[in-house]
């Protein structure tokens, strides 16, 4: 999604803006731009496509551009209007003195645009954002005060926004505000920053503050003043960010995705640290406030999430129902929000989100909260909007994930679901102690097993090469690994653009089997346990239709050699924990296919890391 950076200080602004935008690239974008104040005049530089195109333009004019010590920058992910230079941000008013960058959607932009056009404003883009530039300019004409102009403009805007604004006549000042879109302020010495996310600031300052909805900050090189929509002054609450810039480096890997896949053994250890101490001690989840009384009153759990987080949630359902005996419903947040959902004070609603900023999931949890449900958030960003609105929190501690394709955050979400389910089971006393101890023991051994897959990946690389020219791919599984099949297919399609689909193996013969012939690879996830023999029969049916069969298994069963053309063997693991191991080869398979095809692995087309619009 769009990313914003603003800088006001004593250094060359454009360098800081371009570096900041580079570190926000992971969010996904199709064009970019900066507004600078050069010799007292606001000037715009914009480019379509990758940031390199903007850098080239900047380089050509660098001697002038480098004079500016104030600027706002933007990477755009098109919502209203095609990706183009005209639609790229910053946008300006008629006279070009106001420049703004925006993340979000202005829902009433059509009405605003009609009104502003009637007042004589000329629009140069198809965007919703440009209306805000004209609106702020008209308010500034009345008030001659940029902060007040922004405040008055936001009172007429409906929708979601993070905005950074500068005005040619208001020297060394950036005004920024937000509603339902993230924005963070960074504080330096003689310089201040504003950005959509911390990676854009972290190499310059670790002192930061998250702006709340409807707050407006006025930044100069030496000051940051915050007010709310009623003009009340908000005291600064500056926090020290824990992040190290090194976390954002590829550390020698060709892509962030590959690095993040390899971080997973450590991520599992991180998630377990402090929560699972020994196998005979209860799990401790400090920020979960569900006690025995609350748990006894619960009649159901609903989990809302999107994309990969939704797949983690689907596995969460299996685990919680199995350990805790509480009925669990899982729904895509985007579906949950526009129907009559049955939710009440005896329903626990769990929101799962890597970013904690996914607009649909935020809307879903707010809806449930209004109906009285306890809201528990499982997120990788304890500083996010969702985390701040939660009643209970499970921080997943995966560190920043740069690649758009979620890998380590998915692993961390899965482990968090195991911990949460065990925690609830222990509070409720719903599971046998011996079984619990075995499971905890297996969780502790999991990182070693993942390591084993990561150190023997040649087979997966060879299979990737062999199947990279296929146009379609089917993943099948049953039971707790059905969501693993969905996630394996999602990984492959999002980074290689191969048409990959996950099916419950039992459903194959109810329709999808019609597609099978020797042009269709079918990858069967065959983990030992309740449904092993069933999937084997389903695989036989697929093989009989000449499908190109691949197995992913923890079994050394010799009959698999006859049935499957290729086999990915992974360490043995209990069925209940198997999704945390089975996903790793599928992430690698997707990675190597995409890499072999020369795709932009870390920034796949059309995708955004943090989907902050509905
Ligand atoms: C998966 O690789 C994607 N990045 C995407 O499906 C993602 O999981 C989804 O957009 C939800 O994001 P969230 O976890 O930040 O809420």
Describe this entry's structure for a reader:
It contains 20 helices and 25 strands. By secondary structure, it is of the alpha/beta class. It has 3 domains: 246 residues, 4-Layer Sandwich (Glutamine Phosphoribosylpyrophosphate, subunit 1, domain 1); 199 residues, 3-Layer(aba) Sandwich (Rossmann fold); 139 residues, Rossmann fold, CATH 3.40.50.10490. An 8-stranded antiparallel sheet has the order 3-2-4-1-10-9-11-15, covered by helices on one side. The chain has a 7-stranded antiparallel sheet with strand order 5-6-7-8-12-13-14. The protein is globular, with a radius of gyration of 26 Å. The relative contact order is 0.09. The mean pLDDT is 93. The site of 2-deoxy-2-amino glucitol-6-phosphate has 15 residues, from helix 10.
Helices and strands, with pairings:
Elements: E1 3-8, H1 13-24, E2 31-38, E3 41-48, H2 51-60, H3 62-65, E4 70-76, E5 91-92, E6 98-106, H4 109-118, H5 129-143, H6 146-156, E7 159-167, E8 174-179, E9 184-187, E10 192-195, E11 207-210, E12 216-219, E13 224-227, E14 233-234, E15 239-240, H7 256-262, H8 264-272, H9 292-297, E16 300-305, H10 307-324, E17 328-332, H11 333-336, E18 347-353, H12 359-370, E19 374-379, H13 385-389, E20 392-395, H14 408-428, H15 433-455, H16 458-467, E21 472-477, H17 482-496, E22 499-504, E23 521-526, H18 532-543, E24 548-553, H19 559-563, E25 566-569, H20 579-596
């Amino acid at each position: 999604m769009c990313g914003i950076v603003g800088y006001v200080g004593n250094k060359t602004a454009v360098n800081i803006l371009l570096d900041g935008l580079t570190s926000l690239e992971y969010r996904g974008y199709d064009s970019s731009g900066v507004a600078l104040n050069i010799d007292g005049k606001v000037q715009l530089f914009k480019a379509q496509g990758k940031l390199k195109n903007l850098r080239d333009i900047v380089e050509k004019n660098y001697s002038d551009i480098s004079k500016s010590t104030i600027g706002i920058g933007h990477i755009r992910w098109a919502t209203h209007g095609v990706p183009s230079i005209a639609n790229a941000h910053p946008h300006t008013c008629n006279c070009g003195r106001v420049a703004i960058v925006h993340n979000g959607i202005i829902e009433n932009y059509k009405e605003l645009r009609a009104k502003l056009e009637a007042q004589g404003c000329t629009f140069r883009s198809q965007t919703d954002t440009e209306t805000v530039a004209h609106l702020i300019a008209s308010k500034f004409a009345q008030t001659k005060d940029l902060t007040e102009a922004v405040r008055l403009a936001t009172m007429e805007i409906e929708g979601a926004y993070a905005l950074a604004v500068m005005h040619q006549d208001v020297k060394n000042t950036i005004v920024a505000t937000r509603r339902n879109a993230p924005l963070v302020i960074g504080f330096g010495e003689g310089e201040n920053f504003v950005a959509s996310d911390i990676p854009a600031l972290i190499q310059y300052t670790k002192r930061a503050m998250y702006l709340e909805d409807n707050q407006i900050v006025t930044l100069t090189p030496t000051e940051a003043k915050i007010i709310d929509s009623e003009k009340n002054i908000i005291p600064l609450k500056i926090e020290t960010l824990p992040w190290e810039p090194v976390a954002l480096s590829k550390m020698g890997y060709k892509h962030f995705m590959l690095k993040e896949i390899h971080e997973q053994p450590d991520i599992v250890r991180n998630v377990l640290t402090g929560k699972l101490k020994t196998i005979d001690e209860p799990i401790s989840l400090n920020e979960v406030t569900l006690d025995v009384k609350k748990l006894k009153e619960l009649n159901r759990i609903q989990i809302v999430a999107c994309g990969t987080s939704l797949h983690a949630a689907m596995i969460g359902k299996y685990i919680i129902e199995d350990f805790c005996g509480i009925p669990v419903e899982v729904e895509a947040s985007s579906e949950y929000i526009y129907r009559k959902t049955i939710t009440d004070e005896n329903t626990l609603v769990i929101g799962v989100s890597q970013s904690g900023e996914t607009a649909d999931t935020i809307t879903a949890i707010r809806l449930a909260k209004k109906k009285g449900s306890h809201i528990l958030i499982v997120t990788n960003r304890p500083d996010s909007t969702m985390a701040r609105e939660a009643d209970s929190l499970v921080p997943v501690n995966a560190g920043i994930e740069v690649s758009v394709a979620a890998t380590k955050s998915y692993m961390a979400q899965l482990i968090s679901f195991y911990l949460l389910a065990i925690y609830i089971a222990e509070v409720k006393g719903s599971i046998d102690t011996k079984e619990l101890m075995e499971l905890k023991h297996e969780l502790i051994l999991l990182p070693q097993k993942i390591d084993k897959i990561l150190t023997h990946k040649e087979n997966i690389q060879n299979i990737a090469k062999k199947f990279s020219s296929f146009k379609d791919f089917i993943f099948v599984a049953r039971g707790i690994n059905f969501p693993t099949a969905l996630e394996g297919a999602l990984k492959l399609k999002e980074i290689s653009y191969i048409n990959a689909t996950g099916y419950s193996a039992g459903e194959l013969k109810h329709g999808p089997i019609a597609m099978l012939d020797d042009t269709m690879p079918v990858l069967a996830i065959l983990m030992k346990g309740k449904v092993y023999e069933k999937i084997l029969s389903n695989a036989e049916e697929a093989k009989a239709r000449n499908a190109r069969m691949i197995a992913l298994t923890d079994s050394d069963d010799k009959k698999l050699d006859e049935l499957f053309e290729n086999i990915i063997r992974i360490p043995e693991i209990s069925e209940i924990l198997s999704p945390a191991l089975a996903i790793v080869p599928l992430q690698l398979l997707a990675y190597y296919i995409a890499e072999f095809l020369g795709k932009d692995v870390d920034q796949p087309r059309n995708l955004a890391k943090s989907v902050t619009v509905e």
